[in-house]
Amino acid sequence: MTTVHVLFIGAGRMARAMIAGIRRRQGPIHWDISVANHQDSARLTELTTTFRVRAQTDWRTAAEQADIIILAMPPAAHQTVLETLSHHVLPHQLVASVAAGIGVSGLASKLPEGTQCAWLMPNIAAAVGESMTLCAFGDTVTADNREKLAEILRGLGQYHVCTETQVHHLTAITGSAPAFAFQFAEALEQAATALATDETTARLLVGQMLLGSAKLLLSGRPPEELTDEVATPGGATAAGLSVLTEAQFKTRVMDAIEATNQRARALAPET
User: Fold this and answer.
1) Residue 12 labeled ligand binder
2) Residue 177, annotated ligand binder?
3) Is 191 flagged in the annotation as binding?
4) Which of 3, 78, 146, 163 has the fewest CB atoms found within 10 Å of its own CB?
5) What is the pTM of this model?
6) Tens digit of pLDDT for each residue in 140-165?
7) Cα 93–96–97 angle (5° rounding)?
8) Which NCBIfam families has this protein been placed in (predicted)?
């Protein structure tokens, strides 16, 4: 069995979700995981106890032993870390970031020429192994390192390899839109409790309805076909849909995506 050494710099929610995903998978790789985080010793202790990882107080030493280095800290912290990492990274290593706005080009511009770089954008569902993760690879990433990273991403859920530009545009769909879905779910829960049931039952009703609807979408059937199957012309569902149509529901959703992308561009760190 191949052993792959992974270093997480940062120990926040996404690092924890990724480590949990790695440990869930029973694949052909033995993962030797180290985590460095100088701000939260309690989190390091929890990760060490729960997931059998090594806690590192000085990531620079650990970096030299790693095969994959994952930057799991906020975008603002990348500048300083990358400046230091540039003196330690080795040609065979893969450096990946899970921070918004960084991009492959942002990593490559701060690291030695030819450094293997990747940009990952998981979403909140990584915590339960159901993420839709976007992934962009730099041109120098080897096939072997692509497969190693893909094995990590499989532990988070589904993943899609695309260009850096596509990650910038599509993160509003995969990363931000879960918040829109939760707002929709909240409205449905409120309607359920106002009409006939308690909060716990409302959560079950709405959650299972969304889960089942999502599975139908993933079966490959187009949403308009599924809508027509539920909504009989002149029926009760059609009456509800007409309210959403009058409120320009689809247009408002697309407006929300555009607003998300505009704000993401404004917040993106300079490379």
Assistant:
1) yes
2) no
3) no
4) 3
5) 0.92
6) 999 999 999 999 999 999 999 999 99
7) 155
8) proC
